[in-house]
Amino acid sequence: MNIPTSTYRIQFRNGMTFDRAAALVPYLQRFGISHLYASPIFTATSDSTHGYDVTHTSEIEPAIGGREGFDRMVSALKKAGLGLILDIVPNHMAASLENPWWRDVVEQGENSRYARHFDIDWSRRLTLPFLGDTFEEAVAKGEISVKRDPQTAKPALVYYDSYYPLAPQSWQGREEELLAQRDPHAIARLHDEQPWQLTCWREAAGNLSYRRFFEITGLVGVRVEDKTVFDDTHRLILELVHSGAVDGLRVDHIDGLADPKAYLDRLREEAGPECYITVEKILGKGEHLPEDWPVSGTTGYEFIAALSDVLVDDGNIAALRQAYDRVVGEPVDLKTELRNAKLLMADRNFAGEFTTLLKLAQAIAADENAALSEDELRSALRELLVAFPVYRTYGTAEGLTAADDELLQRVIARIRLDENAPPPQALNLLRCTLKGDVAQEVSGVAATFRTRFQQLTGPLMAKSVEDTLFFRQNMDLALNEVGAEPLPRTFSIHRFHSEMQTRLERQPDAISSTSTHDTKRGEDARARLYALTEAPELWAECVERWRKINQHKVTLLDDGPAPRASGAWMLYQALAGVWPPTLEAQDAASLKALEARFVVFVEKALREAKLRTDWGDSNEEYESAVLDYTRHLLSPDNQPFLQDFSDTLQPFIRAGLINSLTQAVIKLTAPGVPDIYQGSETLNFSLVDPDNRREPDFAQLERLLAEDEPFAAPTEESWRSGQLKQHVTARLLHLRQDKPSLFREGAYLPLEATGRREENVLAFARADREEALIVISPRLAFDEHHDSLTHHPRWADTTIMLPERLSGHRWRNALSGDVIVLDDRIDLAAFEGGACILLVRE
């Protein structure tokens, strides 16, 4: 199999084309990348900024260069010896009239050849929830009419710029009559003759006839479990793999599929044994990919979570939590907060999916002669969904696997002991249904229930945690990341070592990520905010002082101040994470540019929290008040705050840059395939999307890499520009290419530090029979009295003991080139002034 030694993720669209990517190949080659990792490249909706809303699975997006541009990029990659990994989207396509399959389904209904390509409930008319009001209101307002479609010249029902094709039998033979029609009642009758019905977008959550991606009604589920559908959607993908143009596939949202293992088995069979395949999958703590999946691993969110064990100060996090509780006004019970977020999702945002499951459960209960009321079944289903601790199980038509059944039993046992426990008979029925332990007559209904239940638990978890709870509870935003645990836990360097050993054993070829197009903030913002756990009292004092400075901009509304104290805590912390390390408080132009990005983030954060405003029901007065407060923070006229904020932030900036280098070194040397997200080789202080999908300054990246290597004596400038991080990354990328077996198969050996600064060191080695690498990096480096990155000792009076297999050898410093001989220990004082220590056995 073609296993990458590293990948470089590029976001296409928004100006990035195949030809521009091809022009970057010399940089990527010089940098040390083995594979370009491309966001979706197939034709998507005309206004797509990301490519996950695919409209043509057998066409490469013309706007980024089409097939010819793609071939030119592949040629450039191959000439440089680089491979290509594609991000593919098997779970969904765009529910857009630009999608010819979807358009055909709208026009032909169940008679369309693509009617079974999409996951549609054909027991009723296809719902098209794209109106601003009900259909009746839209007609009464004159917003809907009959016109000729400019693309097809056929009559269509028109709503603003959307032309909905009419079923042929509803207009053929009376075309001119319909086109002259202005009577609202006649339009309503024509609408009733269609295999679809236009509805208000607000009704989608509770009344949708097709499976969607999460809450996005513009993305319709695809039935890739059907071989015909698989073949139709993967024809071009497989052609590119078989031709040698594509070396690997990243499978988006694997948990959305009806049967992920069956899909992956088919994909592996069709793509062949040499194709590198990874899956986007969120793993909870202690959870692992099913061992029988024919993939190399995940795309690395669990790796991001593991890094927090190294960079969070567990001894001080309780103090930070207490400070946050004081700001909120009461102790935060995260277990209750998580339950409330899940209940909101189940009761409101996924009401339609919930109702579908409830109806299926009622049908099974009736056939099983179970004397259960609708309310009892509703309560049991609700509690089971809310209590589910992982994204999903992987049952099939035959029932659950032994491991999933064991998980289900544990969940149900906990529910029965809970104060909200539903009737045990109802829980038992749901357990039997999920297991497949039901009468033969309802086995098909049970299988449908099982599939729908499994396809719902993932979105419910994601939207509850990542897109609700993580915008409500803001003790430390660095911990509010995709893949992170939503409940309080301890952080331990020993657990990190254990997880890396498990990673080597279970998925040594999985992708290791630190930033992606979906992370809540860039890796360097996260690295800086980890440092808050080292200085909780200082941070709390600062926030209190800043709130007083800006108190006159707080607006008192009927439902309370805007922002509240807890909201201000979030704003100051988010601003601390995104603040450029070289930004001066008097730089009006840079402050304006930062404000433009930050305001978009704040609006999204307020709506995702779903407390005083929401995407579906925005509170304009509240949003305006908070956004005005936010703009004031970054106003050049607000110098008392800006000077204080900038000065106070300097030790956090210093600690964050050290953390940043440490997490980069870990990613490049620990088990897994490191991915560099575009621009993150220097510094990535991005906010949540769309901010994290902005194109970096590639010309600047190339200039920095071309300059002299800053290893011998790192300067403040090389730290703060990200050049040091970039050059260390490049050196390790080339080392990975020189020693692929060491990094892929070499043992992971935790090393223990002793002495005065033992808590401030992370050390481990990678070793096989012939080669070895010792990695030593700083951690917990915050010091409020120092902001210098070049003149501060880190490891005085600290030693690392070496096991027998590492002692008594000559070692070369991978950064400086110096050669030393080590006996059974390393005296770290000898390396003071260096950014980190990387020793390669000679």
UniProtKB/TrEMBL annotation:
<dbReference type="GO" id="GO:0005992">
    <property type="term" value="P:trehalose biosynthetic process"/>
</dbReference>
<dbReference type="InterPro" id="IPR006047">
    <property type="entry name" value="GH13_cat_dom"/>
</dbReference>
<feature type="domain" description="Glycosyl hydrolase family 13 catalytic">
    <location>
        <begin position="6"/>
        <end position="418"/>
    </location>
</feature>
<dbReference type="InterPro" id="IPR013797">
    <property type="entry name" value="Maltooligo_trehalose_synth_4"/>
</dbReference>
<dbReference type="GO" id="GO:0030980">
    <property type="term" value="P:alpha-glucan catabolic process"/>
</dbReference>
<dbReference type="InterPro" id="IPR017853">
    <property type="entry name" value="GH"/>
</dbReference>
<dbReference type="Pfam" id="PF00128">
    <property type="entry name" value="Alpha-amylase"/>
</dbReference>
<dbReference type="GO" id="GO:0047470">
    <property type="term" value="F:(1,4)-alpha-D-glucan 1-alpha-D-glucosylmutase activity"/>
</dbReference>
<protein>
    <submittedName>
        <fullName>Malto-oligosyltrehalose synthase</fullName>
    </submittedName>
</protein>
<dbReference type="InterPro" id="IPR012767">
    <property type="entry name" value="Trehalose_TreY"/>
</dbReference>
